[in-house]
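Long-time lurker. I teach an intro course on protein structure, and each term I like to show students one example going from raw sequence to a predicted 3D structure in token notation. This year I'd like something fresh instead of my usual example. Would anyone be willing to generate the tokens for the chain below so I can use it in lecture? Attribution to the forum is fine with me.
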Amino acid sequence: MHGLNFETHGSPVYRLYDREGTEIAYDEAIDRLAGAEVVLFGELHDNTLIHQTQISMTEDLYKKRKGELILGAEMFEADNQLILDEYLAGLILHRHLVAEAKVWDNYETDYRVLVDFAKKHGLKFIATSIPRRYAGLVSREGIKALDGLSGEAKQYIAPLPIAVALATPGYREMMEMNLDMGHGMQMNPENLVAAQAVKDATMAYFILKNRASKQLFLHFNGVYHSQNYGGIYWYLKKVAPELNVLALCAVEEESFEFQDEYKGLGDFILVVPAAGPPPPRT
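-- Reply from a regular --
Happy to contribute to a lecture. Here you go:
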């Protein structure tokens, strides 16, 4: 088990803490994560060190679970699953995947390595995100607008109706922030929270739909979709309260020190600097 080095040329590249702020070793974190049924890796999309850690953890969890691993990600929309499956099966070339799936701008640098890992090892890779056009519809017109979609469209969304509860961690704060900024806003703050909820509920739905009893489902998503045990985590537990879900949340902190505000963000807190070149792989 290699992971990333905690130190490069005498300087730390990241630190891992538990939810209470006790620093833990990489190998201990892998052992604990491997015992879960679902792991939510909450990332910051533009941090290179976080992406380096993702592939390292993926490789080590694959070894620890002896190949019993499923990958999934917010970075692929559910209506692109067929294209993704065809690439994983070797039926289409990578350029077809990039041309026809709605890959993110940083796909080539940050996510292709995860997709190709799944391809190399014959793993499933699940596109869990609601198609962005439907999240946009909710932002503009509210969650009831989803009722007007066709049956074909609805297969790419969590089953309706989707509950939007402000008690869900993060949603009330999002509502209040949008209300504070609301003077002159074109979007209804309630609709913006509902759009977040349909994203979270849909990712949870596709995780549950595609997970297998003997496999670990490792899911990559923006940290705001799972921190404080809200978002995806909340919807997973709402449907399957017995499910063993662990949340890893990444934060940027130049000193690498655990701050009080990080307490309870997740089961594991990955602290990385905001900038700097990636360390060498070992």
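Some talking points for your students: The radius of gyration is 19 Å. Confidence is low (pLDDT under 50) at residues 277-282.
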